[in-house]
From TrEMBL, chains A, B:
<dbReference type="InterPro" id="IPR036038">
    <property type="entry name" value="Aminotransferase-like"/>
</dbReference>
<keyword id="KW-0456">Lyase</keyword>
<comment type="subunit">
    <text>Homodimer.</text>
</comment>
<dbReference type="GO" id="GO:0046656">
    <property type="term" value="P:folic acid biosynthetic process"/>
</dbReference>
<dbReference type="GO" id="GO:0008153">
    <property type="term" value="P:4-aminobenzoate biosynthetic process"/>
</dbReference>
<protein>
    <recommendedName>
        <fullName>Aminodeoxychorismate lyase</fullName>
        <ecNumber>4.1.3.38</ecNumber>
    </recommendedName>
</protein>
<dbReference type="InterPro" id="IPR043131">
    <property type="entry name" value="BCAT-like_N"/>
</dbReference>
<dbReference type="InterPro" id="IPR050571">
    <property type="entry name" value="Class-IV_PLP-Dep_Aminotrnsfr"/>
</dbReference>
<dbReference type="GO" id="GO:0005829">
    <property type="term" value="C:cytosol"/>
</dbReference>
<dbReference type="InterPro" id="IPR017824">
    <property type="entry name" value="Aminodeoxychorismate_lyase_IV"/>
</dbReference>
<dbReference type="Pfam" id="PF01063">
    <property type="entry name" value="Aminotran_4"/>
</dbReference>
<dbReference type="InterPro" id="IPR043132">
    <property type="entry name" value="BCAT-like_C"/>
</dbReference>
<keyword id="KW-0663">Pyridoxal phosphate</keyword>
<comment type="similarity">
    <text>Belongs to the class-IV pyridoxal-phosphate-dependent aminotransferase family.</text>
</comment>
<dbReference type="GO" id="GO:0008696">
    <property type="term" value="F:4-amino-4-deoxychorismate lyase activity"/>
</dbReference>
<comment type="pathway">
    <text>Cofactor biosynthesis; tetrahydrofolate biosynthesis; 4-aminobenzoate from chorismate: step 2/2.</text>
</comment>
<dbReference type="GO" id="GO:0030170">
    <property type="term" value="F:pyridoxal phosphate binding"/>
</dbReference>
Length: 272, 272
C-alpha cells in the first residue's frame, strides 16, 4: 500500500531541499551514558562540510541544539549507550536546484538505540558489485546523497557484515558504512581522503592515534590484491558508532586478527 | 536562525529514507488546464526507475493518486498551467543504508505554479565548473540524489538560463535541469542515455518526434568543440516543463536559432 503525504496538509515540510535533492548532511554520534567521545570531531566535520556546500551554520547554535538533545534524549536512554543523529538541510525553497539567496538551514535531531555490536573476534566481509563514484567537489562529505550506499547495502546478506566498494580505477576505497585500514609489513595504510565518499570521524581518530603511537602510517590507494595477498597482516573497519572492527574473513579468505588497533584507537572500547 | 525539528514531535516523518539518503525518485509534470501531455512518459519512467532501485510501486495505485491530485490541485489552479511534483521514497526504516525487507514506499504530492517560461528567441547558457559524475548503475535515473545539480545551479547568475555539465572524459552531457540536442550538417545528435545523470521525458519525446519526422538523428558523445565550432547549426535544451528551448548564446558565442525542433516536438507549444 502506498502511503500518501499531501503537500498542503500540516504534517509535511513542503519544499525541504533535504527531501527534494538530498541537499544536506548528517552525523551519527554515539553517546556513552552522558558523554559523546567523538562529538567534537563530528561537529568539526559538520561545520567544515556545511562550509563546502555553502550551507550557513553557526557552531554555537549547533552546540546548543546538541546539548539540548543530549539532555532530552539522554533522559529516555538512561545509562544505555545510544545514537544521536543530526540531519542538516540547506532549508526550503529556491527555484528548483538553485537555492534562494536567503535560504536558511533546518536541523533534524533523531535518536535511536545502539545497533548490535560486532564481536571482537571480527566479522565477515565481501566485495560489492556496486561501483563507487565520487565527485571530486564532494569527496569525503557525509551528505544526504547516499543512494549508492543504499544500492550496495541492499545486496548484503547476513552473516556478511560489510561490503567493500571499489571505484572505476579498481581501487578498494571504503565499505558502505565504514572506512578501512590495512596492516602490512611496513605499517598501516588507508585510502587517500580525496578518493573517499565519506571521510569518517573514526578514520580521523585512528590516524591521529596511530601517529601519536609512532606507528608507521600512510595514505595510499589499495588494490583488491593488497587485501587478499600474502602481505596482508590484517584489515580493520572503522565507524564512529561501532569503533574499530577487525575483519576475520574477506571474500572467503581468513585474515589474521589482532587487537592493537582497537587498543590504541577505539574510544568506545572499555579498558581491560 | 536554525529551524529545529524534533524526531519525537508529530510533524516529522521519522526515518523517511528519502530525507535520510535521497532514497527515492521524483517527477515534475506539467499540467495544461486539465491535461498533462507527457503524463504517460512520466509514469513510465517512474515505474521503470523504481524497478531499477528495487522500490515496489503499483502502477494502478500511482495512476489513481495522480488522478486525485489533478482534481485536488487542479481546482486550485483553474485554467492556469501548473506543475505536479511526485516524490516517491523507498519508505522508512531498515538498518541504516540497508532497507528492511518489508519496507513500503511513500508518495509525496506537491503542486506549484509554472516557472517563468523562456523566450522563443532563445536563452543564454554557459558551462559549469562542477563535474558530472554518473554511477553506471544509476545512469539516467531522476533520483533524489541531486546534490551535484544543486552545486552547479548555485553558480548560475541571471541572465544565464542554464549551465552545461561535462564528465571526467570531457564530454558535454547535459544541463543542470535539461538534456541537449545539437543540430549539425548531418542532422541531430544527443549524448547517449548511458552517460546521463537524468534521462529526460522531453528527451524521449523529442527523439520519438525526430524519428517520426524522418530527421537524421543519432546518440553520440559531444565535445565542447562540437558545440562551439563552425559545424554547430543550433543547440536546443529540453525539459518537460519548459519544452524545447533554443540556445542563442553559449559561453559568449552567438548560435543560430531555429524553430523546427519546437515545431515538430514540443507538446506544450501552442499551434500557430
Amino acid at each position: 500500500m502506498l502511503k500518501l503525504y499531501w503537500a498542503d496538509d500540516d504534517c509535511l515540510l513542503p519544499g525541504d531541499r533535504g527531501l527534494a535533492y538530498g541537499d544536506g548532511l548528517f552525523e551519527t554520534i554515539r553517546v556513552n551514558g552522558d558523554s559523546a567521545p567523538l562529538l567534537v570531531y563530528h561537529l568539526d566535520r559538520l561545520m567544515r562540510d556545511a562550509g563546502r556546500l555553502g550551507i550557513r551554520l553557526s557552531r554555537p547554535e549547533l552546540e546548543s541544539a546538541v546539548a539540548h538533545a543530549m539532555k532530552r534524549y539522554g533522559a529516555i536512554h538512561g545509562i544505555s549507550h545510544w545514537v544521536l543523529k543530526l540531519v542538516v538541510t540547506r532549508g526550503s525553497g529556491g527555484r528548483g536546484y538553485r537555492p534562494a539567496a536567503d535560504v536558511s538551514p533546518h536541523l533534524y535531531l533523531f535518536h535511536s538505540v545502539l545497533p548490535p555490536l560486532p564481536p571482537e573476534t571480527g566479522v565477515m566481509v565481501d566485495f560489492s558489485r556496486v561501483p563507487l563514484t565520487v565527485n571530486p567537489l564532494l569527496s569525503g562529505i557525509k551528505s544526504l546523497n547516499r543512494l549508492e550506499q543504499v544500492m550496495a547495502a541492499r545486496e548484503m546478506k547476513d552473516p556478511t557484515f560489510e561490503l567493500l566498494m571499489t571505484n572505476a580505477a579498481g581501487h578498494v576505497v571504503e565499505g558502505t558504512r565504514t572506512n578501512l585500514f590495512l596492516h602490512g609489513p611496513d605499517g598501516w595504510r588507508t585510502p587517500p581522503a580525496a578518493s573517499l565518499a565519506v571521510s569518517g570521524v573514526m578514520r580521523r581518530k585512528v590516524i591521529e592515534c596511530l601517529l601519536a603511537a609512532g606507528e608507521p602510517f600512510r595514505e595510499c590507494e589499495l588494490q583488491v590484491e593488497d587485501l587478499l595477498g600474502r602481505e596482508c597482516q590484517g584489515l580493520y573497519l572503522t565507524n564512529s558508532v561501532l569503533g574499530v572492527v577487525p575483519v576475520r574473513n574477506l571474500a572467503g579468505l581468513d585474515l589474521p586478527v589482532g587487537n592493537r588497533l582497537a587498543t590504541i584507537c577505539d574510544p568506545h572500547k572499555r579498558p581491560d
